[in-house]
Design goal:
By secondary structure, this protein is α+β, with helices and mostly antiparallel strands. It has five helices and four strands, in the order E-E-H-H-E-H-H-E-H. Helices cover 31% and strands 8% of the residues. It has a two-stranded antiparallel sheet with strand order 1-2. A two-stranded parallel ribbon has the order 3-4.
Length: 150
């Protein structure tokens, strides 16, 4: 049984950290056009075609690897790193769509739960460290060999 740790959730409340138990597949992730057309987020919003493309690519990033916001938009052939970050900020499928595995192009850890800052970065580093991805003390990727480009 994995150790129970606490991590901040989207409202900065502490919740049990189940990152060691995250699965890459979910029966709740719509993969066909019909389910995608009718899917709504908890806020009642539709997911755009661009967001689906970002989520489809991001959910392929293997455990123990990371990609960059720029690599995501290059791979899907549209958008910008900022628009990829915006889509991931609204990710209704975490952890099935492992948005924590996307970092900045300069290999800085980047945002987490839609925010940048020391507390968010340390939380993201903690989750990625549990998956085998290491960062320097100032938040940069320790080894480039874990970068995944699809």
């Amino acid at each position: 049984m994995p150790a129970v740790r606490e991590k901040p959730d989207r409202r900065n409340r502490l919740v049990e950290d189940t990152s060691l138990n995250w699965k890459d597949e979910s029966p709740n992730y719509p993969t066909d056009k019909t389910r995608r057309a009718t899917f709504r987020t908890k806020a009642g919003k539709k997911v755009t075609a661009f967001q689906w493309a970002v989520y489809d690519f991001t959910r392929k990033v293997p455990r123990g690897r990371v990609t960059t916001y720029k690599d995501v938009c290059t791979a899907i052939g549209q958008g910008s790193p900022r628009s990829v970050g915006s889509a991931l900020r609204r990710n209704p499928f975490a952890p099935t769509v492992p948005c924590h595995r996307v970092i900045a192009s300069n290999h800085y850890v980047g945002g987490f739960f839609g925010e940048w800052g020391p507390s968010r970065c340390s939380a993201k580093i903690h989750v990625l460290s549990n998956e085998g991805v290491e960062f320097t003390t100032d938040g940069y990727l320790a080894t480039k060999s874990v970068i995944w480009r699809g």
